[in-house]
């Protein structure tokens, strides 16, 4: 029954779009969390 539900073209398109959107949001979140582009304090180890 679930397989028949996802065989419909519009449901397949919407589910794939949501899946890839969630992946892109997760990648953006992880990129912003890593601190790329932030300035680091030079004397952090002293």
From TrEMBL:
UniProt entry tagged with the keyword Transmembrane: yes
Entry keywords, A to Z: Membrane, Transmembrane, Transmembrane helix
Pfam family for this entry, one: DltX
Highest rank taxon of the organism: Bacteria
TM annotation in the entry: 12-31
InterPro entries, sorted: DltX
Designated name of the protein: Teichoic acid D-Ala incorporation-associated protein DltX
């Amino acid at each position: 029954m679930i397989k028949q539900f996802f065989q419909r073209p519009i449901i397949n398109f919407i589910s794939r779009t949501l899946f890839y959107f969630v992946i892109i949001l997760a990648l953006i979140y992880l990129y912003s969390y890593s601190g790329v582009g932030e300035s680091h304090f030079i004397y952090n180890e002293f």
